[in-house]
Amino acid sequence: MALSPLRIFTSFSSNLSYTEAGIPTVASAGIDLALWTEQQNIFVQAALFAVFFVLAGSSMLLENTFGPTMAPFALMAAVAAWAMSRKITVRKLKSV
């Protein structure tokens, strides 16, 4: 689940940079964040875990539903549909 966002990103773009140890920079940043989180208060840890679980869980759900190659397009379609619905709502409010 933790690497699902990385798999989706790499299927969309192959421009990954790597550390000297050969770890993708995005994964290295995740490791650094996890090490930093271990030193924080339990409430900060719980809040960060909840945010991570929502983001990684939704990525995993997209990946399992549409496959890793189609997941970015499904995400873009969902964002476009949401943006279009917001524009329609804003126009209705302005005309009243």
TrEMBL record:
The keyword Transmembrane applies. Keywords: Membrane, Transmembrane, Transmembrane helix. The chain crosses the membrane at residues 42-60, 66-84. This is Uncharacterized protein. It comes from Seminavis robusta.
